[in-house]
Amino acid sequence: MCNDAFSNTDRTRFVNSNDPQVAPVTEPKDWQPDSWQSKPAAQQATYPDQDALGAALEHLKNLPPLVTSWEVNSLRELLADCAQGRRFLLQGGDCAETFAECRSDVISNRLKVLLQMSLVLIHGLELPVVRVGRFAGQYAKPRSADDETRDGVTLPSFRGDLVNGAEFTPEARIPDPQRLLKGHARSAMTMNFVRGLIDGGFADLHHPEYWDLAWVHHSPRASEYHSMVESVASSLKFIETLAGRQVGALKRVDFFTSHEALHLHSEQAQTRQVPRQWGWFDLSTHLPWIGMRTAAVDGAHVEFCRGIRNPIGIKLGPAMTQEWLTELLDIIDPNNEPGRIVLIHRMGADNVESGLPPLIECVQRMQRQPLWVCDPMHGNTESASSGVKTRRFGNITRELETAFDVHAGMGSRLGGVHLELTGENVTECTGGARDLTDDDLRRAYKSTVDPRLNYEQSLEMAMLIVKKKASQGRAGLG
Ligand code: PEP
Ligand code: CO
Predict the structure, then answer these.
(1) Residue 5 falls within a domain, yes or no?
(2) Which of 96, 101, 133, 168 has a 20 to 30 A CA-CA distance from 186?
């Protein structure tokens, strides 16, 4: 999926580095892929048949990996660039993928939106964009309660397609280990299709028309987007005229994957050592992240993540403290390694101004260099008048804009965004250019978990980031 997969310099750079800025990586002490099992593991499913679970995991352990260690190492270097302001991270996709939506149209529409957004960002920020999908494995979900009660009937909560079924029946809600194998297969199908599309030229900057969604032309933002496309096309032509040839590097883009590293048995089964590479790699995804509900310093998720070479995302909510963050960074990134940590804050529009500064201050005091990313979705979930879960576009943009300001005001840098979005024409978040209302939510609400930005709202978000960065530039910030 990553085109410069073979340009890995990780071993020399981090292990034998002569660069005094880069501390050598020391082996994580007393860590094994299963050492998390001696710690309290939050948000895990209870499988009634342990033998069946063991058999499925044994099978999973021997299946080919979904990503390679070269790609993981290469992403770590790109994330280090994002932290330094040399690139910008765009991370996005579904809240939860579903097995049923492992379909070519859903996958290619999601890819189209991410490509269009990155084109807007490249054009406006004049920076290369690192694209990381929330896909090819985003099948497990944390829940606020272990059980769900409807009309007096209580059943185990739905924990994502990797674990059990969403239908509210006793059979569907029993955790089924065969789902781990189905999840791996669907992740592999998704990866295969994405890699095929990209290698086949779908992501070629010379042909952004491939990314048009059927209804783009009716969008209120269509003309703004199409004039950007024209401007990119003419810049490309200009560069190629000067170079006297097609610019090969611009034909292809990198795409990486990410998911919440929640189901630890599944992550462990896909964690491997690789010939001629140092350390252990979780080869189920390039960028696993630790969710807000599983970030306890003495918990199993932190234990698992500290030992793998993948870059690690950590979600930071309003409850995060300086002490907690200090411990997390010391445990997961004891070597202060460039590109190792992605701090994804999701404070909520009302909390970001007060909640974020202490965390930035903490990182500055520790002289750390994480990549800061804003997830303006998860702190802004609310119930619409009908009771359905929604997010208001105005709150999402307010959190993001405030986050840019808070970082710039403290001499820090917001280096990316993390969004829940889809290429489907859904109505799950209100507001945006079409000013969707609570009533519109009835029309096309498909998410089984969190509400996502639709195509137009996503594109609008990319344009807003560009405008915000431009206004900060004019004000001499950021
Ligand atoms: C998510 O990213 O879907 C999620 C559950 O996030 P958080 O852990 O930040 O609530
Ligand atoms: Co979510």
Answers:
(1) no
(2) 168
